[in-house]
Automatic annotation (TrEMBL):
Catalytic activity line of the entry: UDP-N-acetyl-alpha-D-muramoyl-L-alanine + D-glutamate + ATP = UDP-N-acetyl-alpha-D-muramoyl-L-alanyl-D-glutamate + ADP + phosphate + H(+)
Protein name per Swiss-Prot or TrEMBL: UDP-N-acetylmuramoylalanine--D-glutamate ligase
Top-level taxonomic group: Bacteria
Keyword S-adenosyl-L-methionine recorded: no
Key words, A-Z: ATP-binding, Cell cycle, Cell division, Cell shape, Cell wall biogenesis/degradation, Cytoplasm, Ligase, Nucleotide-binding, Peptidoglycan synthesis
GO biological process, one term: cell wall organization
Mur ligase C-terminal domain segment(s): 329-451
Gene (UniProt): murD
Short name of any one Pfam family annotated for the protein: Mur_ligase_M
EC number: 6.3.2.9
Pathway assigned in UniProt: Cell wall biogenesis; peptidoglycan biosynthesis
GO CC annotation: cytoplasm
Organism: Paenibacillus foliorum
Length: 474
C-alpha cells in the first residue's frame, strides 16, 4: 500500500471497529481520505462509533451491506480477526482492491525502528521482557500491537529516538505487504488457529510474512529447537540470531549445560550468549529468572537476543530477567486455599501451551480446568500428560466432551464436565468447586484451557478474571 497521505480524497473502507479499527479510521480521516467504517455488530454494541461519527466519519453497523465494497474503493483495512471468507473481503479481492491489516498502515507512518515478536506461544511474555530490557537501557521503548495498544496509535507518537516493541499475531501478519521490522522474532510454531487459516501451510506462511521484506542489515531471531523456525532460517535474507535450550550453538543464545541434560541441577545452568567472535558471555543463571518454567527460559533467551541486537548491555538484560514476575493470566498464582494452589493460565489458548504449563510443575499433582472454543482439534496431544501428570479434570465449553474423551482414554477416573446454561460466571464457579473437591493440600488447580475463550467469554482476560473471582469466593 501507499503512505496513508496518498489516499487524500480517496475512498477507504475499514472493516471492524475495536481499538485498531478506530485508530486506523482516525488516521486516514486526518490525512483527508473518505473513510467508511463497517462492523457487523449492532450499533449499541459499538461504543466507539460515536467518537468516529462526531469526527464526520461514516460508520455502518449491524451488517455488511452488499454495496460497502465497490470499484471506487482504493483500500480495505480489515480487523485481523475477520476471516477472508466474508463477502466484503471476497468482493474486494474480485475487484483487485488491496486488503491490509492495521500493522501495514502503522509501518508506513512509524519513524521508529521496530522489534517484532510472533509465535504460537510466549509472545506477550517475550514482548514485555524486551520492553523492560530496553527501558532499563534508556532506549525509550513503546510497547504495542497484539499486546494491548493499537499499533497505529502508538506509531504516530514514535520518533526516531524511540524503539517500537510489537507483539503480532498470524492474523495481523497475513495482511501485510511492505512491512519490514528491524528485528523479527519467531518463538515457535504449533498447530493452532486452523479454523481461520484452514491449513498449517497458510498459518506458517502468515508467520513468515514477518521476515518477507527484511534484508541483510536486519535480524531474524529464531528458535533453533523448532523445526519450522530452523527451516525458515534457510529462507530469510536477514542475519539470523538463533537461540536454543537443547544444544550449544556456535553463535547465538543457549543454556549451558543444556536443559535437556537432567544430570546437572537447574541452579547450575546458565543463560549465555556466544558472539560472532566465539566469545562466551554469561547473562544469569536459570534459577534467577523471575518467572519459572522451561517455556519461560525459551522466552528469556528470545527476549535477550532481541535486546542484544538493540545494544542493550547484558547487566540490564539480566536485571529485567530477574525482576519481571510475569504477565497477567499467564501462570499467575491466584491464591492458596487449604493448601491447594490455584493458578490462572487463561492465556493458554492451544493444547501445546497447556502441555508446557503442566510440565512446568515438576512435583505437584494437577487438577486441570480446560475447554473452550472448538476449532476442530481432537486434543489427542494431551493424552501423554493426562496419563502422567494430571490427577483430575474439569471441562467446560464447546470442547468439554472432546477433552473429557481424551482423559477417559488416558485412564483418568476423576473427570467432570460443567455446564450451567448461559451463565458463564456460574459455569466457571462450578468448575472451580469441582476442581477443589478433587484436590488435597499440595495439589495445583490449574486453569489452562487449551482453547480460545470466544465460545463463552469475550476474551481470555475475562475468563481469567472470572476464574480469579471464583477462587477468591471459595
Amino acid at each position: 500500500m501507499n503512505h496513508p497521505r496518498e489516499y487524500k480524497n480517496q475512498q477507504v473502507v475499514i472493516l471492524g471497529l475495536a481499538r485498531s479499527g478506530v485508530a486506523v479510521a482516525k488516521l486516514f480521516h486526518e490525512y483527508g481520505a473518505i473513510v467508511t467504517v463497517n462492523d457487523k455488530k449492532e450499533l449499541d454494541l459499538c461504543p466507539e462509533a460515536d467518537e468516529l461519527t462526531a469526527l464526520g466519519i461514516s460508520v455502518i453497523c449491524g451488517s455488511h451491506p452488499a454495496d460497502i465494497i465497490h470499484q471506487a474503493v482504493k483500500l480495505v483495512v480489515k480487523n485481523p480477526g475477520i476471516p477472508y471468507t466474508i463477502e466484503p473481503i471476497q468482493s474486494a479481492q474480485k475487484l483487485g482492491i488491496e486488503i491490509v491489516t492495521e500493522v501495514e498502515v502503522a509501518y508506513h507512518v512509524c519513524q521508529a525502528p521496530m522489534i517484532c515478536v510472533t509465535g504460537s506461544n510466549g509472545k506477550t511474555t517475550t514482548t514485555t521482557w524486551i520492553g523492560l530490557m530496553l527501558e532499563a537501557a534508556a532506549k525509550k521503548p513503546i510497547v504495542a500491537g497484539n499486546i494491548g495498544r493499537a499499533l497505529t496509535e502508538a506509531a504516530l507518537e514514535a520518533d526516531s529516538d524511540n524503539m517500537m516493541v510489537v507483539e503480532l499475531s498470524s492474523f495481523q501478519l497475513k495482511g501485510t505487504k511492505d512491512f519490514r521490522p528491524k528485528v523479527a522474532c519467531l518463538l515457535n510454531v504449533y498447530e493452532t488457529h486452523l479454523d481461520y487459516h484452514g491449513a498449517m501451510d497458510d498459518y506458517i506462511a502468515s508467520k513468515s510474512m514477518l521476515f518477507a521484506n527484511q534484508t541483510s542489515v536486519d535480524t531474524a531471531v529464531l528458535n533453533w529447537d523448532d523445526p519450522v523456525c530452523r527451516r525458515i532460517a534457510g529462507e530469510v535474507k536477514a542475519s539470523v540470531l538463533p537461540f536454543s535450550i537443547k544444544e550449544e550453538l556456535e553463535y547465538g543464545l543457549f543454556i549451558q549445560p543444556s536443559l535437556s541434560d537432567k544430570t546437572i541441577p537447574t541452579t547450575e545452568k546458565q543463560l549465555v550468549y556466544r558472539d560472532r567472535q566465539g566469545l562466551l558471555h554469561n547473562i544469569l543463571s536459570v534459577s534467577q529468572l523471575g518467572i519459572p518454567a522451561s517455556f519461560n527460559v525459551e522466552n528469556a533467551l528470545a527476549a535477550s537476543a532481541a535486546a542484544i541486537t538493540a545494544d542493550v548491555p547484558l547487566e540490564h538484560i539480566a536485571k529485567a530477567l530477574r525482576d519481571f514476575r510475569g504477565v497477567e493470566h499467564r501462570l499467575e498464582h491466584v491464591a492458596t486455599k487449604d493448601g491447594v494452589l490455584f493458578y490462572n493460565n487463561s492465556k493458554a489458548t492451544n493444547a501445546t501451551a497447556t502441555i508446557k504449563t503442566i510440565e512446568s510443575f515438576e512435583q505437584q499433582d494437577i487438577i486441570l480446568i480446560a475447554g473452550g472454543l472448538d476449532r476442530g482439534s481432537d486434543y489427542m496431544e494431551l493424552l501423554p500428560v493426562f496419563q502422567e501428570r494430571v490427577k483430575g479434570l474439569v471441562t467446560m465449553g464447546q470442547t468439554k466432551q472432546k477433552i473429557s474423551d481424551v482423559a477417559m482414554l488416558a485412564g483418568m477416573s476423576r473427570v467432570k464436565t460443567v455446564d450451567t446454561a448461559n451463565d458463564v460466571q456460574d459455569t466457571i464457579t462450578e468448575a472451580v468447586r469441582e476442581a477443589m473437591a478433587m484436590a488435597k493440600a499440595g495439589d495445583v488447580v490449574l486453569l489452562s484451557p487449551a482453547c480460545a475463550s470466544w465460545d463463552m467469554f469475550p476474551s481470555y482476560e475475562e475468563r481469567g478474571r472470572m476464574f480469579r473471582q471464583s477462587v477468591h469466593n471459595l
